[in-house]
TrEMBL record:
CDD domains listed in its UniProt record: ABC_MetN_methionine_transporter
GO MF entries: ATP binding
Domain ABC transporter stretches: 6-244
Protein name: Methionine ABC transporter ATP-binding protein
Lineage top rank: taxon: Bacteria
Organism from which the protein derives: Propioniciclava soli
Keyword field: Amino-acid transport, ATP-binding, Cell membrane, Membrane, Nucleotide-binding, Translocase, Transport
Pfam families: ABC_tran, NIL
PANTHER family named among the record's database cross-references: AMINO ACID IMPORT ATP-BINDING PROTEIN, METHIONINE IMPORT ATP-BINDING PROTEIN METN
Length: 351
């Protein structure tokens, strides 16, 4: 069993001031050593604050937070300085020094940690090789692309061999292709160096590509936490359902259904993809088995944690009793949703 490397126990963070903000509200959870843990939520949900508590950039207001055996919620600023080299951080805006070379940027935390010049140079060379930027050592940040800058950020964050890497919206300024490159580097950081990664994002696509588990935050609270596949496939909280729907777009809107209903006769049924080879084969042949004709009119399937996920919407024609029998089969093996034509926009259409 993996050991927790981060443990929140009833943690609160309140920003006092003219506008009192309860940014983190009674969060209790653990993050295991070696996992890639995603934190997702809309802007203002408290994601950054939660993560900044981990390295003590923000002090905990109440509750207990233990990071790698240190109770950071009880440490002084001086004691925190001793813990921080074990926790790297990367940012959306890269936060590189524009006047320093790439090598100098990466060497910066080693200078702070008082490494001598020889060891520093060797370590910088090793880090630049790891992120594939050896040939950029003497360049300045302005000469690099966004993806390259973030790889420099990763190299710098790893300089002191941290056990934990905090990534705050680290791909939000990047295009999808570059995002993928940076996520691949993070995957290697985790797999080859064994670094635990806590990654904040507002993009479910980033979570499904990289993370083992995901936490959904809303109004400072941890509203849902689970394996990425489980959370995607059976989102419970409304906010999670909105994130999943925004990523997937596999289910037709009422307007789209109304348009489809106007041109496709039959009963309209959405069938989720079930990640079980046996059940799935049975489900995909269910309409044919009952002598029905089923036409796919909408849908989407993607891969999450290397498993298929999504849904297909069919227009099913044939005897009503046969459709009912097919739907009863589906109900027993993973469910379905039937859309009532009478409730759809512009629904005169066929039946
Ligand atoms: P997210 O990362 O999910 O966008 P944040 O953690 O940045 O959310 O912010 C959560 C809430 O805390 C917001 O209402 C934000 O305005 C507030 N907040 C964040 N940092 C501070 C601060 N230093 N002082 C006062 N309020 C803050």
């Amino acid at each position: 069993m993996a050991e927790p490397i981060i443990a929140f126990d009833g943690v609160h963070k309140v920003f006092e001031g003219s506008n009192r903000v309860h940014a983190v509200d009674d969060v209790s959870l653990t993050i295991d050593a070696g996992e890639i843990f995603g934190v997702i939520g809309f802007s203002g949900a408290g994601k950054s604050t939660l993560v900044r508590l981990v390295n003590g950039l923000e002090p905990v207001t109440s509750g207990r937070l233990v990071v790698d055996g240190h109770e950071v919620s009880a440490l002084s600023e001086k004691q925190l300085r001793a813990v921080r080299p074990d926790i790297g951080m990367i940012f959306q805006q890269f936060n590189l020094f524009g006047s320093k070379t790439i090598a100098e940027n990466v060497a910066y935390p080693l200078r702070l940690a008082k490494w001598d010049a020889g060891r520093r140079a060797a370590r910088v060379a090793e880090l630049l090789a790891f992120v594939g930027l050896t040939d950029k050592a003497d360049a300045h940040p302005s000469q690099l692309s966004g993806g390259q800058k973030q790889r420099v950020g990763i190299a710098r964050a790893l300089a002191t061999s941290p056990k934990i890497l905090l990534a705050d919206e680290c791909t939000s300024a990047l295009d999808p292709q570059t995002t993928r490159e940076v996520l691949d580097v993070l995957r290697r950081v985790n797999a080859e160096l064994g670094v635990t990664i806590v990654l904040i994002t507002h993009e479910m696509d980033v979570v499904r590509y990289l993370c083992d588990r995901v936490l959904i935050m809303e109004n400072g609270r941890a509203v849902e936490l689970g394996d990425v596949y489980q959370v995607f496939a059976r989102p419970r909280a409304q906010v999670t359902q909105r994130f999943v729907a925004a990523t997937m777009r596999d289910k037709p809107s009422a307007d789209a259904l109304g348009r489809l209903a106007a041109t496709h006769p039959g009963r309209l049924v959405t069938v989720p993809i079930v990640d079980d080879a046996h059940t799935d084969a049975e489900r995909s042949s269910v309409f044919a088995r009952h002598g029905l004709e089923a036409r796919v009119i909408y849908g989407g399937i993607i891969e999450i944690s290397e498993r298929p996920y999504g849904s297909l919407t069919y227009a099913v024609t044939g005897a009503d009793t046969a459709v009912d029998a097919a739907l009863a089969d589906l109900a027993g093996s993973g469910g379905y949703t039937e859309h009532d034509r009478a409730t759809l926009p512009n629904s005169e259409g066929h039946r």
